Structure formats: C-alpha cells, structure tokens
C-alpha cells in the first residue's frame, strides 16, 4: 500500500493538537516517517502519501483530500510537508489550500523537521511555522573534520 498511516495507539498517550501529512514522490515520506518512528515510536498523527509511477495525479489528490479531511476532523490543525517546490505533491497541497483547506504547508521536507514536529505536539500554527523554519535553518550543515596531529605509534593506547 502506498499510503502509510500510523497505528491507533500513540506512544505519548495524550491528544495531539495537529496532524501531519507527508506528501512526496516515490516512498520518501514513508522512509521519513519510519526514521522518525525509530526515535519517537509509532505516530498516529502522521500520514505519508506517496506519488508513484503507478498512481495518477488525480488519485494522489483524492488520497490527499481524504487524509486531510480525517486529520482536520481529528486535530486542531493540519501541517502538510512535501518534497519539491513545484512538484505534483506541492501542486496538490496548493490546490487544496486554494479550495479552502486550512493548513500550514512547507516544501523541502527533511527528517530533522519531521522529528522536531513529532516531538512538539502542542504547537499553534504560528509556532509550527517558527519551528519548521528554525529547524530547517540548522538542518543542513557542511561536514567539516580536522585530522588530529599524528602521534607516534608508541603513544597510541591500543
């Protein structure tokens, strides 16, 4: 199945204020959800929707609308995260918003942002915006390493 909805029991035990939709190409959202669940346990308020080569844009849009309705009914607000600006998942989210769906939406989803949102369950829409922007600003870093100065082999603790 190309839609992943977490199980019915949430590891935190409390009600959540917002639901999250991961709308991505291929199975990127499913992989991100799996990674977040390794740290946070099963997430009932996160749904991963996958646009695959075997699914039309219309089918994906219908799936998105159904999941949005479920989350909108169950939570105070909905956050939608997609992978690529201008891609089909982005366009589906944009059309939903133009039709009146109220949500906070971002493109460029990544694991640090998802993990931050999973662990920050009680945020207002404005707080979600602040968290996403701050986490994303810190998420991409160049890896720089400096080799320690060489020591004599006699000094090594083996």
Protein architecture, described:
- By secondary structure, the chain is of the alpha/beta class.
- Helix content is 42%, strand content 17%.
- It is built from five helices and five strands.
- A five-stranded mixed beta sheet has the order 1-3-2-4-5, sandwiched between helices.
- Helix 1 packs across helix 4.
- The N and C termini lie far apart (51 Å).
- Mean pLDDT is 89; it is low at 4-16.
User: Strands across the major sheet, in which order?
Assistant: 1-3-2-4-5
Low-confidence stretches: 4-16
What is the H/E order? Answer: EEHEHEHEHH
Rounded average pLDDT: 89
Which structural class should the secondary elements be placed in? alpha/beta
End-to-end Cα distance, whole Å, is: 51 Å
Silhouette: globular
- Helix residue percentage: 40-55%
Number of strands: 5
Radius of gyration: 19 Å
Number of alpha- plus pi-helical segments = 5
Sheet having the most strands:
5 strands, mixed
Strand proportion, as a percent range, falls in: 15-25%
